[in-house]
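Subject: design request, 373 residues
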């Protein structure tokens, strides 16, 4: 029968007899009894005081040992009796020593993990690839307890993702223009692989270092890469030349179009002006046809001779003739003397210059016109 059941008059753990509940004994009495058993005599009080002091120091040391500090960039994961209890933030805290355990985890630092190896491409070539993944911890509890070694698991997942992407890409793309696509595909594949494991990490970036072919074929691939770089350079130069020439050509086209439009407008206006002038001359021509016709003729000849060389000939009664080349006189500032030549017979024109003869015929014709012949 238990000591606290009804009817039990035995001893309880506190030394009560007969079932009289007087509460737990005084600690000093307990220590005195213990010291009395081991030491006895007058030294019992001194021994009990030493033991109490030792216990108090032990309690103080135990309390002080539970103080801990979590840095600003860290988060603390608290375990109580080996099981997850809570997550604490930055600052000072206290835990029960031998009962609680605190694991600080840095959640701000960007960590880096490399991966490399000789891998087989889709076109059955071997290429040496190096890659680095940058990540940080976002869930401290998952990072500590979901897997045994999260860093090693991430490295194996990255190696698997990289080999999968390289195996589905041709070597030329890996070495030259397709490196960015390889990097993006590797990151996507890596995130898909680690998602079911709950590693508690976040992939920040994936850097694909320059890949290289095996040493046996390195020279050939270097030539191929150089040729592709030259091709890209030529294309950029051609695009730059096109961007330079095209605006200039467009400007010339626009200028020629404007000039053509201006010429069209000028000719149209001139034609309209001529039409208006002839319309105004029509009543005058109908009133005096001969006079109007002679006037038009003189105006036309004035326009024609305004752009040709001019020679003035004046014959005198003494048989000599003044020959004035006006264009040469004007060009020399009017200082050239007028040459005097022997005037031939009026009917003999063989000795006259052709220009003088033509001008004389023109002058004769003009006199005839003025006389109404």
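Subject: RE: design request

Done. Sequence follows.
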């Amino acid at each position: 029968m238990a000591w606290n059941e009804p009817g039990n008059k035995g001893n309880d753990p506190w030394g009560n007899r007969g079932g009289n509940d007087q509460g737990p004994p005084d600690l000093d009495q307990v220590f005195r009894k213990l010291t009395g058993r081991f030491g006895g005599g007058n030294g019992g009080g001194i021994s009990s005081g030493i033991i109490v002091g030792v216990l108090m120091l032990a309690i103080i040391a135990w309390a002080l040992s539970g103080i801990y500090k979590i840095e600003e960039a860290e988060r603390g994961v608290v375990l109580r009796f080996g099981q997850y209890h809570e997550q604490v933030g930055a600052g000072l805290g206290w835990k029960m020593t031998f009962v609680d355990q605190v694991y600080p985890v840095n959640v701000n630092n960007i960590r880096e993990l490399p991966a490399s190896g000789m891998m087989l491409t889709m076109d059955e070539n071997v290429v040496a690839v190096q890659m680095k993944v940058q990540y940080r911890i976002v869930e401290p509890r998952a990072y500590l307890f979901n897997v045994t070694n999260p860093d090693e698991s991430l490295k194996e997942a990255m190696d698997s993702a990289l080999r999968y992407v390289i195996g589905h890409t041709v070597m030329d793309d890996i070495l030259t223009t397709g490196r960015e696509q390889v990097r993006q595909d590797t990151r996507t594949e890596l995130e898909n692989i680690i998602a079911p494991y709950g590693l508690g990490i976040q992939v920040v970036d994936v850097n694909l270092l320059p890949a290289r072919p095996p040493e046996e074929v390195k020279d050939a691939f270097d030539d191929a890469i150089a040729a592709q770089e030259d091709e890209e350079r030529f294309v950029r130069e051609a695009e730059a030349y096109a961007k330079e020439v095209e605006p200039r050509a467009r400007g010339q086209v626009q200028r020629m179009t404007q000039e053509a439009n201006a010429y069209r407008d000028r000719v149209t206006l001139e034609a309209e002006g001529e039409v208006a002038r002839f319309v105004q001359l029509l009543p005058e021509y109908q009133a005096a046809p001969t006079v109007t016709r002679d006037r038009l003729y003189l105006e036309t000849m004035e326009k024609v001779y305004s752009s040709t060389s001019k020679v003035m000939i004046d014959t005198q009664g003494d048989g000599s003739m003044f020959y004035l080349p006006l264009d040469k006189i004007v060009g020399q500032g009017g200082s050239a003397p007028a040459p005097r030549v022997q005037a031939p017979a009026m009917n003999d024109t063989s000795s006259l210059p052709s220009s003088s003869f033509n001008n004389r015929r023109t002058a004769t014709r003009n006199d005839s016109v003025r006389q109404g012949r």
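The first helix runs from residue 27 to 38.
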